[in-house]
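hey so u asked for the seq, here:
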Amino acid sequence: MQQSIGDFDPPFTIFEPVAHLSPVVFNVPHAGRVYPQSFLDSARLGPLALRRSEDAWVDRLFAGVVQLGAPLMVAHFPRAYLDLNREPGELDPRLFREPPPPDANTRSARVAGGLGTIPRVVGDGQEIYSGRISLESGLARVESLYRPYHRALGLLLDRTVARFGCAVLVDCHSMPAPAGGRRGPPPDIVLGDRFGMSCAPALIAFLESGFRRHGYQVVRNRPYAGGFITEHYGAPAIGRHALQVEINRTLYMDDATLAPDEGFDPLARDLTDVCAALLKALPGLVMPLRHAAE
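ran it, C-alpha cells below
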C-alpha cells in the first residue's frame, strides 16, 4: 500500500506479503532517505551530515520478513525532517519563530535535547537549520505525514488483531556504536520492551536467545528501552505487543560514507533467520485473547 503526499511519492509503503501468515508486523520509521530540495535549501548542514540521523538501510536489512509472511512498513521521509517515534506534539520552542500551541509537549527530555517531533539537531548535536522555521510549516509536517503514517500503522495492527487475535509490532532501528561497559564489549543489538511493559516476557526472551545463538552481543533496554512507538502500541493485556530492535551500525555499514559494507548480507541473513524462528514459535509465545475472525 502506498500514499502520495507533497514532496514524497509515496511518503511510506506497507510491503504486504502474498499471504499474511503471522501476527507480527515490522516497522521501520527512521530509514527514510528522500530529502526534499526545499528542506535541503533551508538546512545549514549538507546531505551527508543530515543523513547521519538516519537508521540507514534498516528497511533493506529486514526486507526478508515479507517473504516469511509478515508485513513491513517503511517511512521514506527522513528522520531529520520528521520523527515518527515521538508524540505528535513534542515541539521545540527554540526551533520555531512562533510559540507552539498551548497543548504541545515542550518540556520532554527529547525536546530538551533538540530531538522533538520536528528535530532541531541531528544525532551528534549539530543544528539542522540556519535559523528558526515557521510553526505553520512544522505543524504541516505533522498533519500531512505523521498522522497519516500512524493512522495507517494503527489500521494495520487492527487488521492483524482481527485476523489472529493478537498483534506483535517489531520496531526496527539502528544505533551508533555504543561505548563498552564494565561488563564487556559494546552490544551488537539492544532489545527494548519499556522495561517489561510493552510485550510479553517470552517474546523478548526468545529474540534475545535467537540473536545470541547467532553470535551477537545482546542487552535489554539500555541505553534504548523503546520510544513513543513501542510505548504507544504496546499493550500486552489486550493482546497488542511491541518491542524495539536496535542494531549496531558498525555491523553492516561504513560510518564515514554510510555505505553498506561486507557485513550487510550476513547480518541480513541472520535477521531473517531470527525473525523466521520468531514467527514459527509465536503460537507458544503469545496466546490470542480470543479466536480471530474466520
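The radius of gyration is 19 Å. DSSP finds eight helices and eight strands in the chain.
lmk if thats what u needed
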